[in-house]
Amino acid sequence: MIVKKLSDVKGGGFPGAGYNERKVAEGVAELMAMENISDALRHKIEVLHHFGLDAASEIERYLKARSQTYGNTTTTRFQFHVSASVKGRVMSAEELTDFARQLMKGMGYARQPYFVYYHHDTENNHVHILSTRIQPNGFPISDHQDIRWLNECANRILASDIDKDIAHIFSYNYETEGQFANIIRSHGYKIGKVEDGYRLFKNGGDAGNISDNEIKSHLSKDSQKRKDRAKQLKAIIKKYKAEITEGKYQSLNNPEVSKSHKKKPKLPKVNSDIKKILDSNGKPLNEERQQQIQQLIDILKTSFGIDVYFQKDKNGQVRGYGLVDHAEKIAFDGSKVMRLSELIDFTLKPERKPTPLDVYRSLFTAEIISDGTNDSIHISTVFGDTYQTVMSANQSAWYRNTKPEDKEDVALMIASTAFTEEILLAYLSRQPIQNHLATIQSVSAVKQRGGKFALRIVTNDGMSMMIPMDDQDESRYRILSPKDTQDFLNNLAVHYLTREDARSIIQRIRQTTKDQTTVRVLPQSKDFTSQMAKVFSINLASSLLFLNVDTGRGENREWEVGTRHRSDAMDNQSIGSTLII
Length: 581
Description:
The chain is an alpha+beta fold. 41% of the residues lie in helices and 18% in strands. The chain has helices spanning 15-25, 39-50, 56-65, 93-106, 146-158, 162-169, 177-186, 212-217, 224-245, 287-304, 340-343, 358-361, 393-400, 407-418, 420-430, 436-439, 471-478, 482-517, 530-548, 558-564, and strands at residues 2-5, 29-35, 79-85, 114-119, 126-132, 190-194, 197-202, 205-211, 306-312, 318-325, 330-333, 364-370, 375-381, 386-390, 440-447, 453-459, 464-468. The strands form five sheets. Strands 1-3-5-4-2 form a five-stranded antiparallel β-sheet, with helices on both faces. It is globular, with a radius of gyration of 29 Å.
């Protein structure tokens, strides 16, 4: 475990919010915990994250508001930003988050507002903790010798004996002693044979014994869970093998070059075992193939917490491999997932690629209707809702001048800009991000000046908001009987809150589109140029994908892969792995 305090920042800002939220938006981090913050902020962050949008400005604004000093200090170093990292995947996101909570308690921040982010963009699992030093009374938490205190606090938390480590290792699912050996290696241990079992070594020291009987007593039998997971892993490997072959990752064709451009291209260091793999002709793999295999191994480890170990015969020749899946705590013989010959084959196979617009095809159909004078866009959603509106001259010209094979895509893009709120509202009404009704303490109708009615909503955390009623909703409210009034108001409150969620998402997507198209003012959707419509449509599609597919931590991305790739029948041959010392 390595605990670091990030550089102090003067000026009362919280740049750590932007750093961590960018990682979340890039899909390489996840917000694991939000402690001692308002329900309103928690909900807003959850809404933005569900749509793949960052909440940096909201978090920084909140932390600044919670950092009022009232003249009790002259410091402007408000931010408290710490990282905690472990080797490889020996601690899960949940375990690191629990460690972060204990660390904050030990450092005197238990009652401060703070955020814990789990990052999986390197080979080592790590978390970032972001908080404010300023307490509610305006005095700062002392940062005198806080680096020393951080390390002492971390050491106290981690001061567990070897039995805890062994218990964690035995929580993994394995079928052979060879698989158990790979689990041990993945946790930073080495094994030596003794009379009645095995001795563990770590960091050059003796770490205890494990008996033969204990290893065998934890052997698992083949199960449906193992079979299902093997299919998912095969889909993951196939997906990233294809992307490496297509050049989407660093390779010999586009190697990493130093910033000064004076040094030679820098290639990833290849595992020595890869150099001992032979091709179908019995010859060593060429340098490009070795690099591709190394890239695949790095991706599996960094993005999914999967370790790969090659197994050699007595002559040192690689004959098979094993996998340790830390996300699901399962060890496999590689042949149960994908044959070694297939694993090292990076021949490009043509495959139809999906497009971001596919998410619209799963939600609605779009049709352009002309009455001889005007063109109209008509959509029918999978939820049974239908919408229609007259197209602008720009939209009509764009559609009419499009090639026949591209007209369907253009119709989808026009529909997504014309009915953005309707699409989001219909979707969120049926698959809500949050149970709004459970967060509401009371709902009432308030008559305002001019005779119009507004909805007053009070949430469980005491926050109150006023939302004007639509004309149609107000007309319905006026004719209701007293016994039906409250149910109507409750349902209306949920509808309005859901609409506010949709509008906050639209506002953020419009801002992103404005920035990407570099225009000073983004016009109304009907006045979009074709380029604006394309950019807006892709941004909306990306946000919807976060609702349709579970793309949380990197370890869980296999669910997305599994739905997009069909897995072949599993190879039934086993490499018969045994424990090799």
